[in-house]
Design a protein that fits this description.
The structure holds two protein chains of two kinds. Chain A contains 21 helices and 20 strands. Chain A is of the alpha/beta class. The interface between A and B is medium-sized, with 15 and 15 residues. The structure holds thiamine diphosphate and magnesium ion (MG).
């Protein structure tokens, strides 16, 4: 059968099981859009390529499967970069397909030519410049294989327009098999046995869970291990949801905005078992002072992570679920670790999150998050933007299941929330998606309200409006002598009216009236909505470990936050 | 003998890579050194018999992070194997330098 590169690309994506992708058309990618026109794949028209990239990320983060975004050459491709880099740092499987100028024009500074291959090289797991239609047969399945294998990540495929237009003879019955995750090589048994012995002998062990636990679908096994060992569990931002927050062994998030008791517990640990975590500086604080009394063991699918920051005594490379299952087989009986467990409970009791009583200050951000958690269905997904509101969500929202928190951990990208929420809603029909955003972040991809209006998805956007780049203002207050350079907005849009302008229900809560009643009512109605929530502009995120300090040097709320105006 | 104007770091070591031979493989490897702040002092590359793969020799500082350098290299899709070549010293590259300045 004779076909074109563009149609072949569409067929290969269909064979990968792709039924929805997000993008924006333009000259170089038009032949592919023409091919999409007649196929079953649903195309989501974003309003900015960064939005398209994050919509695809939302689908991938909610499901764990590679999702696809599309852009044209030049500005289309450069607009995708932030979403690709974000996927790289959080190990999200993404396949980004970009149009490129025809090959004879490459290198001539042609209209909308940019070196997409060169630009995506340092921010992808791998990237391709396709040189012929026949190469698509190899590149497309391989891109999905790479994106989903081992430690997941983004893959970029740059396709020149002449490749899309080229005629190619294919045999529909002998197309390549879809690319799938390759099996992970087994971790040698000796390492597992040695680690089991170490764990059994430890008196004060702590499990340190990272996003890899969720990627490996090893959450339940990690919880079983914790109970087998009677070991308290600390979580990174990316692992929230791996262990239910009311589990007696759960110590919450560690690090910069982690619990004070959580960070203090790590000072006392004699063995730290990191699982799918990468000792990021936001989690460890000053790395040299992290877990000063502990021997370190590290399980990770990426061998390069083992020893990157901290040299472990046991470094096990492999699939976390497989390793935990085998580890459990060597740890049949629970040791009597009652004293350590009690110590963890004591630290948790002595250092609770500082929250003013809800009756006095219902619009305190932490009270708002708790209220939201009560109002949202148990199956809801929560996407966040980046800033104080993100940390308040991490501190106070009780995530009970993996993949219910979608947040930009590694890159910390403002503008992430809304398009990711749209992608998650596309991937999880029937589930409510809340996007907790800030008055700064929401503006960074506000144009996607048009996409949301068109799709009419059950996304509720909650703008925690402090009229500030709050997290920046907080750092200036604490570490830059209260010199508030460029962190306070003199003018803040009427977000409810903005939403209405896009055709979306918009509500602004009235602090003088019944704000929580209004909030509950707004959430109860179906379909998309934006809720503008005025919060105190001086509220800060505490506890906080100053950047570069050791995790025990925690700053806590000097006094309770002032009441909301 | 090392010529006076070829001055490798006092403790340098040679890594041998087998890589897929296609455009871009070299950029991935050199880009990795730039991005992660590792030192790359010299590089030699030639296609192997079948031309599908190339052998690459890298002269790198024998710093404590060498292990990390090797692991990061091994992670690249185009890199098929990484090994240390203690039998080859900086002299190997010095020889090339002499030949090239011929
Ligand atoms: C794209 C991008 N630019 C800049 C920053 C730096 N930054 C981190 S938090 C923040 C303020 C976010 O403001 P807002 O969304 O209102 O959240 P708040 O902290 O007020 O809750 C800024 C500017 C960033 N993380 N991402
Ligand atoms: Mg703000």
């Amino acid at each position: 059968m004779k076909t074109t590169g563009a149609i072949l690309l569409r067929i290969l994506l269909e064979r990968q099981g792709i039924h929805t992708l997000a993008g924006i058309p333009g000259g170089a990618i038009l032949p592919f859009y023409d091919a999409l026109h007649e196929g079953p794949i649903r195309h989501i028209l974003a309003r900015h390529e960064q939005g398209a990239g994050f919509i695809a990320q939302g689908m991938a983060r909610a499901t764990g499967r590679a999702a696809v975004c599309l852009a044209t050459s030049g500005p289309g491709a450069t607009n995708l970069l932030t979403a690709i880099a974000d996927a790289r740092l959080d190990s999200v499987p993404l396949v980004a397909i970009t149009g490129q100028v025809p090959q004879p024009l490459i290198g001539t500074d042609a209209f909308q030519e940019v070196d997409t291959y060169g630009l995506t090289l340092p921010i992808t797991k791998h990237n391709f410049l396709v040189r012929s239609a026949a190469e698509l047969l190899e590149v497309v399945p391989l891109a999905f294989q790479i994106a989903e294998s081992g430690r997941p990540g983004p893959v970029a495929i740059d396709v020149p327009k002449d490749v899309l237009n080229a005629l190619i003879e294919i045999d529909p019955d002998s197309l390549p098999a879809p690319g799938r995750a390759l099996p992970v090589p087994d971790c040698p048994e000796a390492g597992i046995v040695a680690l089991a012995a170490e764990l059994a002998a430890a008196r004060r062990p702590v499990l340190y869970l990272g996003g890899g636990v969720i990627a490996a679908e090893a959450s339940a096994l990690a919880c079983t291990l914790a109970h087998r060992l009677q070991a308290p569990v600390v979580s990174t931002l990316m692992a929230l949801g791996a262990m239910p927050p009311d589990d007696p062994l759960f110590m919450g998030m560690l690090g910069m905005h982690g619990g004070k008791g959580t960070n203090l517990l790590l000072e006392e640990a004699d063995l730290l078992l990191a699982i799918g975590a990468r000792f990021d500086d936001r989690a460890t604080g000053k790395a040299a002072a992290f877990c000063p009394r502990a021997r370190i063991a590290h399980i990770d699918i990426d061998r390069a992570e083992i020893g990157k920051i901290k040299t472990p005594v046991h470094g096990l490379t492999g699939d976390a679920a497989d390793i935990l299952r085998r580890l459990l087989a060597h740890l049949p009986v629970a040791p009597a670790g009652g004293a350590w467990r009690a110590r963890a409970a004591q630290l948790r009791r002595e250092h609770p999150l500082q929250v003013p009583p809800a009756a006095e200050d219902p619009l305190h951000p932490l009270n708002l998050i708790s209220f939201l958690a009560r109002e949202l269905p148990a199956t809801a997904l929560v996407a966040t933007d980046v800033g104080q509101h993100q940390m308040w969500v991490a501190q106070a929202f009780p995530f009970r299941r993996p993949r219910t928190l979608l947040t930009s951990g590694g890159l910390g990208t403002m503008g992430f929330g809304l398009p990711v929420a749209i992608g998650a809603a596309l991937a999880c029909p029937g589930r409510r998606v809340a996007c907790v955003s800030g008055d700064g972040s929401i503006l960074m991809n506000i144009q996607e309200l048009a996409t949301l209006a068109e799709l009419d998805l059950p996304v509720a956007i909650l703008v925690f409006n402090n009229a500030n780049l709050g997290l920046v203002r907080q750092q200036q207050q604490l570490f830059y002598g209260r010199r508030y350079a460029a962190s306070r907005f003199a003018s803040v849009p009427d977000f409810a009216a903005v939403a209405q302008g896009f055709g979306i229900r918009g509500v602004r809560l009235d602090p003088g009236g019944d704000p929580l009643g209004e909030l509950a009512a707004a959430l109860a109605k179906p379909g998309p909505c934006l809720i503008d929530i005025p919060i105190h502009d001086a509220a800060n995120v505490f506890p906080m470990v100053p950047p570069g300090a050791a995790n025990h040097q925690t700053l806590t709320a000097p006094e309770l936050e002032p009441a909301t105006p | 003998m090392t010529p006076a104007n070829f001055l490798p770091t006092a403790r340098a070591t040679v890594l041998e890579l087998r890589v897929r031979n296609h455009p871009g493989a070299m950029s991935h490897i050199t880009g990795l050194f730039a991005r992660r702040g590792f030192n790359l002092e010299a590089i030699a590359c030639a296609p192997m018999g079948d031309c599908a793969t190339s052998r690459m020799l890298l002269l790198v500082a024998a710093e404590p992070r060498l292990d990390q350098v090797e692991r990061q290299l091994a992670r690249l899709h185009d890199v098929l194997s990484v090994s240390e070549r203690p039998d080859l010293g900086p002299e190997f590259f010095a020889g090339m330098f002499v030949a090239a300045s011929g």
